[in-house]
Amino acid sequence: MHAIALRIAIVLAAVLVTSSSGLEARAAAGDDETVPSGGDRLILRGGATVAGEIVKRTDTSVWIDVGPQVLEFKVADLAEIIEGDGAVEVDRDESALYSTLESLPERSAREQARLLGPAVVKVATPRGLGSGVIIHPDGYAVTNAHVVQGETALRATVWLPEPDGTLKRTTIEDVELIAVNNHYDLALVRITHPDGKPFDFSLLEHEDALVPGQPIFAIGNPLGLEQTLTEGVVSTRTREIGGLTYIQIDAAINPGNSGGPLFNARGEVVGITNMGILSMEALNFAIPARYVKDFIRHRDAFAFDPSNPNSGHRYHPPPPRRRAGIAPELVTGPPATEVSR
Predict the structure, then answer these.
(1) How far apart (Å, rounded) are the C-alpha atoms in residues 252 and 18?
(2) Whole-angstrom distance, CA of residue 336 vs CA of residue 310
(3) Residue 246 and residue 68: Cα distance in Å, rounded?
(4) In the 3-class helix/strand/coil scheme, how is 115-140 assigned residue by residue?
(5) Edge to edge, what strands does the sheet with 70-74 contain?
């Protein structure tokens, strides 16, 4: 009885909040029933409407922030879930190419796969294949350096959204290699949309806040099996390998997943999958998003040189010291004034 009474109280509170906010919205918009920019609505089976911001979704429940509090509703009790028009301001630094967004709602992996699938691509070369993720509407995508290593003839398979909600599988031959960083095992490519339209893209994590046990999932093309999703948790976020720290995960990663995105429950790219130990189970790794951001921001330093497909620009080694022994102490500050003699 207590549980039923509590649930009725929650629904009544939601209806009251909706009634007041709904009257204000209609007064300002003149009986316009459209959802405000970024606003969400839950339509209960009884006809009541709850307006606010969806902060989390799973396969069984929805949490919506109505201002004074966050209310939970069972999906089975809802007739419809109406999300805002998506007109939210994305924090995008055009010089950095990637975008972030604060306070994204959490969703189940199944729902995120439906939303994020078009941003995941398959990258193929004459010698093999891998995965990648589009991070910019102009077609800039990140993959692993070892996927494109030594190759210049690249092609990508993308899944373009159709008006009826389906995805059209399309192979694009015109793929440009922009930058390669072998130390991070990252590469930046650019894909040209066949219709000249902007691509769907994924957001990079807004904050570096992974913790062990946090749910994650990967989407990629293991062994060429396209658009495969695997799910797991973060085992540790600080696994040192070769002087870098990697995200260790227990989600299945296989050849062909390399270069694909690792997502959190908010749909942010938290890493790029790049390796696993084949003789072991549930022992796989991803490159943290902080390295991805650093690589993209400084991509000019790793610009691809068409005459040398194995790396970026080559520089001459620094000249060796001419004298043996300990180098003198470095003097900082303004140069001393010379005295004429």
Answers:
(1) 44
(2) 46
(3) 40
(4) HHHHHEEEEEECCEEEEEEECCCCCE
(5) 70-74, 61-65, 49-57, 40-44, 78-82
SS (H, E, C) 69-101: CEEEEEHHHEEEEECCCCCCCCEECCCCCCEEC
The residues carrying an active-site annotation are: 146, 185, 258
Helices (H), the chain: 2-29, 109-116, 145-148, 289-297
d(CA 226, CA 219): 9
pTM: 0.71
| Interval 141-180: pLDDT, tens | 999 999 998 887 899 999 998 888 889 999 999 899 999 9
Q: Compute the distance between CA of residue 332 and CA of residue 341 in angstroms, rounded to an integer.
A: 25
- Sequence-distant (≥ 6) Cβ neighbours of residue 277 within 8 angstroms: 283, 284
- Domains present along the chain, CATH in parentheses: 2-82 (2.30.30.100), 89-306 (2.40.10.120)
Amino acid found at 321 = R
Terminal CA-CA length for the chain:
102
Spatial neighbors of 130 by CB under 8 A, at least 6 apart, are 122, 123, 124, 143, 144, 146, 147, 220, 221, 256, 257, 258, 259, 260
For residue 179, give the amino acid letter. Answer: A
